[in-house]
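Illustration: Histidine phosphatase family protein.
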Amino acid sequence: MLRYVTVLLALLFALPASATDAGWAALREGGHVVLLRHAFISGNTEPANFDIEKCNTQRNLSERGRQQARKLGALFGARAARIEKVLSSRYCRSLDTARIAFGSQPEIFDALNQLSEDPDERSQQKQAVLEIIRNFSGSELLVLVSHLENIQEITGVSPREGEAVIVAPQDEGVRVLGRVVF
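Result:
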């Protein structure tokens, strides 16, 4: 009985490692799109005075999130193919994750903003992101920094804060090649 429990535990702990290994292999290979959820933030909801143009009215990266973004950038630099381009949501937590991790100003791509509650606008956002993914033909990496709901909508995956989901186009959607948790 103890042998079966040991084997079961070994399999459970091996699954996340192999998912991370597949993610790193895809990142080293290059030629892929990375959907990156912003790093750790403070707070659970946007303040009542939320303004997309003012960082002090938004949920922002916590100190832990800034550390996570630095670690993420260092690991990308050491273990991944070169990054060709970084696109980001307009939200400060996404922009800051991109700036800290990759050391440059990302290009704002509004389709990566928090998903609209309007079904038509939501569909347009998803299609715009899918179009970027389908049209990417570089040999390096394209990083899209966004939010939980956006990545779920595109992939069906619920990434943790600071998690990378590596994708490739497939039919009308995407195929998840791997994931990396930082």
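Reading the tokens back as a structure: The two ends are 35 Å apart (CA to CA).
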